[in-house]
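U., I forgot to send this yesterday:
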Amino acid sequence: MNHSDAPLIANELYVALLGSGAPVIEMTLSTAGTRIRITAMGQDPLPVLYSHGPGWQIVNGLCHLAGLTTDECGLWAQLGTSR
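Result:
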C-alpha cells in the first residue's frame, strides 16, 4: 500500500510527540482495504498545543480522518477513501 502523503503525515505526528517532550515514541502503521492509519504514541497525555497546533492543520489538510487516541497520549491520522 502506498500513499504520497503518508511520509509527511507520519513526520508531523512524530514531531508533535517529540515536541511535547515524549522520551519514547511508538509509530504504528495499520492497513485495511484502501485505508492506511498512522498512529504516534507517547507515554503521557499530550498538551493541547501539541495535539492541535500548527502541525495539526497540515495533518487535517492531508488526511481523511484524524484525532487523539482514547488515552490522549497519541495522535492518529487515516488516509484512504473508505471510512
